[in-house]
Amino acid sequence: MRGETPTQTTILFPLNIEARIPATHPLRRIKQHADAMLAAMSPRFDAMYSRTGRPSIPPERLLKAHVLMALFTIRSERRLCEELEFNFLYRWFLDMHADEPVWDSSTFTYARERLFAHEIAREFLSTSAEYAKDNDLASDEHFSVDGTLIEAWASMKSFRKKDDDHTEPPTGGRNEWVDFSGETRANDTHESTTDPDAKLVRKGDGREARLSFAAHALMDNRHGLVRDFWVTSAVGISESEAALAMLDGAGIRGKIGKSISVGADKGYDTHAFVNGCRERGITPHVARRKRGTVLDDETAATAGYAMSQRIRKTIEEIFGWVKTTGNFRKTRLRGIDKVQMAGYLVATAYNILRIARLLAARELDTGPPGIPAAAQIPVAA
What we know:
14 helices
């Protein structure tokens, strides 16, 4: 018998979002670990808000919204709010009821100021690193550092002379045509009118110069988790200086009877970084330059050095995920402080995803008591 499309809509019907999410959906494990991390941060959230007044959007929900944006490459906060109107999976992840109204996208703007003032984004990343330690996923002995460039949200047309008053009316409308041929532009004499913190740099010889920020990552070598993630100006601070500052910020120093090493590429084969590591009791495992290397032969001949040089390349996977899936190749925010906050959040999303996969693999290897691992049903990661 041929079925017919009903024309009468149902006025009331029961809807359980929890029952509609498959038990093997990978987002379930991610949500479990994200909720555990946010629960540990609850005292910090209590200190952020007054005990009286109108209730705000829960900070846990806002932070998980940023994690959701990174996991599903959602390009903007406005787009996320649009999809929350009809996407039950996103609503379930944010602990929203089926009929709960979606907040306006401007809420992120106001909440960002409060989260920045209390350094919640950095605390979220630190909590994810501590969570990894508690689950024996971090070594706290061997690390790697590296840097990359993040394109700024500013057009090359906005990069103008600092003494230009910018009061002349445009001749070609809002997006006027500008000819920069024959004009030498440099950070000393020019700055972006859109984002003065962005600097004009090129990634390498023969590459085009772009307005960018510098991003630096400190990775734990055991499972490739992010220990710290800094965004700095692309000019004025070197990768070596940023790496040493991250080591100090994370409290990483050598102790008697405890060997700590830091792997890095050839860009860190400098007197400042190598000597700075040794002053902190850390063994520098940097790739050696063919000419004028700073690292001694004795350190380069050890088995630990060879292992560090092999594992430190894993940090490129962090930058690859952050820029592609995390949608952080080009920032959507202006100002180094806001870009730094976005960097913390996307790095935290990477950690949560990585931790969920590692713990799922561990459960699959060990398995529940009495059930052989080979007979278990694989759990999606």
